[in-house]
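I am writing to request your help with a piece of structural work I have in hand. Here, with my thanks, is the record as I have it:
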Amino acid sequence: MARRQPNYWTASRSLLYSLIFTLPLIIVYEVGIIMLSAEDLPDLRNGADVLMRQILAGFGISGIYLSGLAFVAIAAILLVQKFNSWKSQAVKGSYLALMLVESLVYGIILFALLAQARLLLMLSDGSALVQQLVLAIGAGFHEEFVFRALLITGLATVMKLIFQWHVYTSYIAAVLVAALIFSAFHFLGSYGDIFSWPLLILRGLAGTMLGVIFVTRGFGIAAFSHTVYDLLALTMVTIKV
């Protein structure tokens, strides 16, 4: 008996579709980083990417390009590991197209709500436009991977285990805590912003919205929605400059 194919709302949240959907983001980001000035590479990396590289370095995986290769390797391992359960599932191009449309809608909504602030990008004022473009694309993947996929999932699991909360309660609390950490992260480091409560609250709101998208619609759509917002914000800043 043939296995029933999942509908769009189920399939689009799956790990398979998330891996396929976000692969272009990581490829464009890594190729863009390689094409930029080699002397600036260590400083041009997206902040969340730098954090991931530091974590990977703790496991002996270091180097300018190895973080991107590590993500590709992890994706390949997951694809091989899940091959038996995924081989009977046809990947539908129409689903990927719908995911792109859905991401565009969420990104535009996020931009419309936060447009007056003009900030979610961790960019240097002195960066060239192409550098800002590459970093904006990288932020969509890396920040969603770190602050949503890893942090929300990890916090929800720990909260459910320790407090014996219902899974929904655990995820609601995890989304809020992760949003606060996400917001605070943007004030750290040499490219961080000067601290202000309004900006902390603003980014916390953005983090909450992206967290809700991640929990309800999956990693792939959350990453692309973040990227769409960043590119729209970059466009607005560039035009006004």
